[in-house]
């Protein structure tokens, strides 16, 4: 029994073993399974259809080569089979990921010249500097998906990618061992080229050589004449043909299945043009009406009439019903009241951007359903319809969240706790008029950017000592923390506008001469920072444009809220048109902060647009002739 097992194993392991070719065919089975799983994974990720067709073609090519070997090259040396299979393994494990990488680079052809010019003219933190807000959302999302398909983000990715690579390594290791074994057999002084030719000649001559007649063997064969040999040979040939045809059908099926899935998925999402990326899925017998949307992006970057924003609440609910949404990006679109309940099933949501949507409430389920959220940007305007409620535990399970942007929510009473946001890198809180205290920010191990602006009641800054090694920027403007005494050992600076005196105060006789934006010492000395925190903040305080600029400060008692939505003016929604004001002079039609296009008297914006035109950016020869567009 043991000898039989050893003999069979030698027949499998040996390069010229009796069962080596059969083993090579059996090794195609796990490879085919991994290819099918990889294709399904790429489809689920929403990879571009051209890449899916390419991968399906590689799968079909592998199947066709196996069919060709079994039908027409079965008697060829097993070593040749291994080489061809290994090349195909390398194509799937190395070439195709490299193709995805290059495709991701070249597909992102959006002109970034305008963004770079804007970053030159606008100061840091200004909305217009962010490339994410202005580049093609579809191309950006496709680039991110293609690139991230190469990353290992879960245990399934480890199994799929590393197992494929392991199979390729095993085959190439076998090839290397065979080549080394052959090289050791080459006589000394004989070149590799000559030896290769001699080995080939020897093999051919061996096949054609005539061996002496074995009389005993012939006699035994004659005695066994009643046992036919031909049926056994035909059986083997029939099995090879059947298995080869199975691979042939499989190869054709790969291409047909991919084409059908792409076409069915495209038809299912045809009624939702704002779904810029969807999962390619189709199961025989299931309904093809539901769109498995991955990225819902609907933006109006230059609205002409903000009072008639398109209501997308029902569309968002319909696309969220499949539970596949990973990206939601809405700009100048309307959401009625609360987020639709259908979003609760979107457990894989990673990017949520709502700018000027009028959303008012985040339901309680968002704290658990959005546990994989990575980027959160909720921006309102200065009107009355904005966020009024966030769950107190919203961030508790968002361990992957790296960016938070909350601004222009005048009626938001409090902010959720930020404890546990271990991946948080960037925070921006701006123009939250009711916020008096910032939430605790302990254990923020990755914090890099802290930006606070227009928080008219916040008198103290967070303790930045704990993340001093990672902190790259602290931006603080238009905040009482600049003058309340927090940075000066308790001494309030009432000449700084954020700590201005309250006019016509009804409680002026109370004996307290300091405005409420100042720290009351010694009762509130616990708010004062440590010496280490002060030394860290002093590094950023030297740049006044980012830290406590008196020119950007406003008095909270004379602050008038202005809505970015104004009555329609001469711009009529046309960007960069020349406009003028009787009192302020020549201006330019511009959509500041992605608001309504209106006439703005800003020489910086005019110079910025002229620079874009000089750099070759597209322009309107009629409306922008005054800027040099010809």
Automatic annotation (TrEMBL):
The chain crosses the membrane at residues 50-68, 88-108, 242-262. Residues 567-629 form the WLGC domain. It holds the Pfam family WLGC. Keywords: Membrane, Transmembrane, Transmembrane helix. Gene3D superfamilies: Ribonuclease Inhibitor (3.80.10.10). It comes from the Eukaryota. This is WLGC domain-containing protein. It comes from Phytophthora cactorum.
